[in-house]
Structure of Lipoprotein:
Amino acid sequence: MKSENRSEIHRTSRLRRAMRCAAGLALSCWAVGCGGGEDGGTGALRVRISGEGAAREGYPFVKEGVEVRFADGWSITFRKYLVSFGDIEVKGLDGEPGSSSGKRYVADLHAGDQIAEEIEGLSPRRWDALSFSVLPASEESLPLGNVSEEDMARLAAGRFTYYIDGEASHPERGRFDFQWGLQNPTRNRNCSNGLDGTDGVIVRPNATTEAELTFHVDHLFWDTLGAEQSRLRFDPMWGANKDGDTTITFDELSGQRLADLTDPEGAPLRDEAGQALVYNPGSIPLPDKNLREFVLVSSASQAHLNGLGLCSVQALAP
């Protein structure tokens, strides 16, 4: 079994998806003209949310024959991976309105895929401006699947956009729990379609199109921002745990300076080549160059459309 990081899987998946979708895209364009509304009735769009296999199974896990693993030997499992999202909007860049319900939801990505909305009565055409938000939960938010009242209350009280409850283990370093509430609201606009790289989605007449809001949970553990070659690491999170207990809090990450990452005893962390480990934010500005801010910024770009489709991400006020 070949072992690679997530960025290499992305490149393989793009090629496979493009090959699979070429015939389907041509058929869809034949059916609806890839333009304005056509005769033959309206269509529907079913919007699903997914954290893929990583949210369900943790790391390492195997995707399309490739093992996704941490560069520093950690294994990660999740008990919960809650996300608060909504304000799903479908429209045309030509100004035609499609749908904007304004509803908000909370889903547990660890529990598997969930259907958020089924939008009916859409004109058959390419809806090339699909947008949605990741934003704090409120009393009006709707729970999906097995999300409990306790889950809803926790997110609302903390104004969290994400709440992650997980366990990290290492053959030499031991086992640690982490419960992290994140506040990083975003508006994800004009998403490209990860199936074929085009804008938005095509709705066919008298048919239901599937659209998946795909959350890449590996963003929590990247060591580089703004680059394809990002390795997954947990050593810096482990090193932030200076009080000697077995729970790593999110606030503890603020004690790790990106240019001076240390272990729990204060010794410098090393990478696989024996060099001092340094996290690289690239050209992305951070309020402060510590691990907590790095993870907040990195995790803000988790959301995609249909696997690999990129959205224009705009930070919202907390």
Residues 6-38 have pLDDT under 50 and may be disordered. The chain has one domain: 2-315. Helices lie at 6-32, 52-57, 149-158, 235-239, 291-299.
